[in-house]
Specification:
The complex is a heterodimer.
Chain A (H helix, E strand, L loop, with lengths): L3 E4 L3 E2 L4 E8 L21 E8 L2 E8 L8 E7 L4 E9 L4 E10 L1
Parallel strand pairs in A: 2-8
Antiparallel strand pairs in A: 1-3, 3-6, 4-5, 4-7, 7-8
Chain B lengths: L2 H27 L7 H12 L4 E3 L2 E4 L3 E4 L3 E7 L9 E8 L6 E6 L8 E6 L5 E9 L4 E12 L8
Parallel strand pairs in B: 1-9, 3-9
Antiparallel strand pairs in B: 2-4, 4-7, 5-6, 5-8, 8-9
The chains are: A mainly beta, B alpha+beta.
Protein name (chain A): Thiosulfate oxidation carrier complex protein SoxZ
Organism (chain A): Bradyrhizobium valentinum
InterPro entries (chain A): Ig-like_fold (IPR013783), Ig_E-set (IPR014756), SoxZ (IPR030995), SoxZ_dom (IPR014880)
Chain lengths: 106, 159
């Protein structure tokens, strides 16, 4: 089963720049590997990662097979108000996972 | 008395060695073609649309010597303010010799506060990594780093 690890500070001051760290467990099969019998292993990767804050998109990444297994992505955002971060990973073979984290801004 | 068993053992070992050598050949040939510098150039062209790419502003933090190409930590930082009227719109990372030239595209905005992203990537060979930043005024800035990889990723066999 897929599972996500999210690291968002629980509290921040208004105007602070905060770091968000995310990790999603996924094999990220490149599609360029072969079995010992010579058959190609089909591609199975996460192609898109999106982060929304209170419904507005704040960060998006397009991923390719060159991203290592269990994609780990960190980025920054400005804390403007209390609210909820929503994370979404979409990939091959109908892969779709979500996670969320709340922050209190003072 | 001693001759026959010895020679047949040698023959057997010789045949086995030959078979192993023959078996090894297809393993080498199934390796897919590498991306070429031309593919890298066309992937960059797709992002920039032929606009001039300046050197500078972008910093690519990646170990110069990588033991395991399966997971290489990478951080891209763009030394540019993130104001609503003037900010970094996106960061694009490319490679020269993986089967595909693209690594990732990151889309940012003025709310990002700091134009910095980190991830872990795969490298199939010792090669050049290129990071390009697109600013809100439409200009492009880039940097490139050469990385030496001792254990390649992406194309090894599944066990």
């Amino acid at each position: 089963m897929a599972s996500a690890l999210i690291n968002v500070p629980a509290k921040a001051k208004r105007g602070d720049i905060i770091e968000i760290k995310t990790l999603m467990s996924h094999i990220m099969e490149t599609g360029y590997r072969h079995t010992t019998t010579g058959e190609a292993v089909p591609r199975n990767i996460i192609t898109s990662f999106t982060c929304r804050f209170n419904g507005n998109e704040i960060f998006r990444a397009d991923l390719f097979p060159a991203i290592a297994a269990n994609p780990f992505i960190t980025f920054f955002t400005t804390a403007t108000e209390s609210g909820k971060f929503e994370f979404e990973w979409i990939g091959d073979k109908g892969f779709s996972e979500t996670a969320s984290a709340s922050i209190t801004v003072e | 008395m001693q001759q026959p068993p010895n020679s047949s053992r040698r023959q057997f070992l010789g045949l086995a060695g030959g078979a192993a050598a023959l078996g090894a050949i297809p393993v080498i040939t199934v390796r897919p073609a590498e991306a070429t510098p031309a593919m890298l150039a066309s992937a960059i062209q797709n992002v920039t649309g032929g606009a001039m790419v300046h050197t500078g502003k972008v910093k690519l933090d990646i170990p110069p010597l990588v033991e395991n190409g399966n997971t290489v930590p990478m951080t891209v930082t763009v030394a540019h303010p993130m104001a609503p009227e003037d900010h970094v719109r996106s960061i694009h990372v490319f490679n020269e010799k993986n089967p595909q030239p693209n690594i990732a595209n990151f889309h940012l905005g003025p709310h990002s506060g700091r134009a910095q992203v980190s991830t872990r990537i795969r490298l199939a060979d010792s090669q050049k990594i290129v990071a390009i930043a697109k600013l809100s005024d439409g200009s492009f800035w880039s940097t490139s780093v050469d990385v030496v990889v001792t254990l390649a990723a992406c194309t090894e066999e599944v066990i």
